[in-house]
Amino acid sequence: MTATAVQGRVTSRPPAPERGRRGRATLYWIAKHAVAIALTIMFLGPLVFIGLTALMSDRQALTSQLWPTTWNWSNFADIFEKAPLLTWIGNTLMYSVLATAFMLLSSIPVAYALARFRFRGRKLAFLLVITMMMLPPQVVAVPVYLIWARFHLTGTLWPLIVPMLLGDAFSIFLLRQFLVTIPREYSDAARVDGCGEFRTLVRVILPMARPAIAAVALFQFFYCWNDYYGPLLYAGTDLDNWTLSLGLAAFRSVHRVQWNLTMAATVLAMAPVIVVFFFAQKVFIEGVKLTGVK
Amino acid sequence: MAAVTLGNRLRPLAYLSPWLIGFAVFFVYPLISTVYFSFQRYDLFTLEPVGLLNYEYFLKDEAAWTSIRNTLWLVVVMVPLRVVFGLGVAQLVTRLKAGAGIFRTIFYLPSLVPLVAGTLGFVFLLNPSTGPVQAMLGAVGVRSPDWFGDPAYSKWGLTLLALWSVGDLMVIFMAALLDVPKQLYEAAALDGATGWRQFVHITLPVIRPVLMFAAVTGVIQTLQYFTQAMVAARVASGATDSAGSVFTPGYPDQSTLTFPEWLFQQGFRDYAMGYACVLALILFAVSMVFTLILLRQFRGFAEEEA
């Protein structure tokens, strides 16, 4: 409000030599926003066309028309008849929810120890966490697969869920980066009040770390929701064990459907992510910032 | 007193134990095991020591070298383009006076779209028969290439997809740009430096570490590039991979075959698990080099206190 008021006063009677600069500034303003709008079209365009195609009739999907002539909302019901989508959604939810819960349970104490405790090998341990975070999962894929085969758990999603009880490198890293920014005075004060180390963590540190915990939880949830490589490796050929990502990738070819239904299924997979993003945008953005260097 | 000290000693161990077990079971043991299997022929049923045969086979395996060339292409083309584009978008958004928040939201959004869904969307958008891109280009008389069906364009199609989801880089770069001290720009403005020269002489040097970091992590991520290439090839080729019929990644003409895809194919589709371990060790060595670069260049990353 004040800014516009001040600006208003200035523009009302600019001194003569200022006028040229002002003109150039206006042009610059227009140019910047024009580019921003062009980029908006680029970034949103694909989502819009995916959405529009999802609503086309089978016949229209065979043409290259851009706008639906009839709005076939029933496409979203039809896709559930073409493929066991509900089963896939259920499996994906189970994978995402359990993996996220297990990750939090195991990774928070690890991150806390790396951020707060002084012990020999602390730096080395953190470097190893970063290394594990960076290395491609394919590096140890064969022996890890054989471990799960020995327990007869290949063909299920459990090989992707159970290891989360043993911590996730990326989440440990992110949580640790946040926890080191909490001043030591808080935990010291709690200790003076007679809190043990564990109670300090639960009562004092965790509430302060809520934004970081929310960020790693969301990242983990969506990592699982979006994961394709993991389920492709472990879920096997039984459609009842598939996730949404697996099913979606095979949707068009296996079920011989048109682009309209394929895009309807695509919208279905995107929708939860987009909805959650709009409610928790800040959490995402702050979380992404934590992944960078200071 | 002694008990307290012992407790203090063991406490870090207790807190770290989940990760220590995970590190041992899912990393150290498998890594050693990978070395062992690389000298064996193993197809889940029979195990037979074959000496260096798997390694010799690698040298003659043309598909492996094709996959290395493709992965290298992605590292050399896709990673720099993403950094430059991400920086450009970030620079623009930090300069916007009206609607910066909305634009940031919109530009970030695609990076959250599930990889499989985004890839499917792009294969549809860019398909030459019914795709909207062809429809629009056709309206102005331009013929769109068959992005995901022509070996000359398929990697560019994947690059477009990667540029579309540049939002995560944008957020990191925006944070860095907003941290550049204002006084530097004011001083430069007094010296008459504006626009482009401010960007080259002030902005770039100040945010260089962030750009470097993004480039190195970008390379490491690209070494794992799998899902988009796999899904694009599968959908564009129209191959089915349920029962019986076989899908081989890389369509069209092995032009999108990446190294991790070939590793996956060898290990878990052809069950040449010993040979897959050779490929895994190569991937390990290359990733390790870049990880060490990262750790050396960014000591601050692992500093004691932030």
Overall SS class of chain A: mainly alpha
Strand percentage of chain A: under 5%
Biggest interface: A-B, 98 and 107 residues
Shape of chain A: flat
Q: Could you give the distance between the termini of chain A? A: 34 Å
Proportion of residues in helical segments of chain A = over 70%
Fraction of residues of chain B in helices?
Answer: over 70%
Q: For the CA atoms, what is the radius of gyration of chain A?
A: 26 Å
In short:
The complex is a heterodimer of chains A (294) and B (306). Chain A is mostly helical.
Task: Report what the structure shows.
The complex is a heterodimer of chains A (294) and B (306). Chain A has 294 residues and is an all-alpha fold. Chain A has two domains: 13-76, no CATH class; 83-291, MetI-like (MetI-like fold), CATH 1.10.3720.10. Helices cover 73% and strands 0% of the residues of chain A. Chain A contains 16 helices and no strands. Chain A has helices spanning 2-12, 18-54, 58-61, 75-82, 85-116, 122-134, 141-150, 158-161, 169-179, 184-192, 197-208, 210-226, 229-234, 244-254, 259-279, 281-290. In chain A, α2 crosses α15. The longest helix of chain A has 37 residues, at 18-54. The two termini of chain A are 34 Å apart. In chain B, α3 (62-95) packs across α8 (167-179) and α5 (115-125) crosses α11 (227-237). The two termini of chain B are 33 Å apart. In chain B, strands 1-2 form a two-stranded antiparallel ribbon. Chain B is an all-alpha fold and 306 residues long. Chain B contains 13 helices and two strands. Chain B is 70% helix and 2% strand. In chain B, a hairpin with a 4-residue loop joins β1 and β2. Chains A and B meet through α2, α5, α6, α7 and α12 of A and α1, α3, α4, α5 and α6 of B.
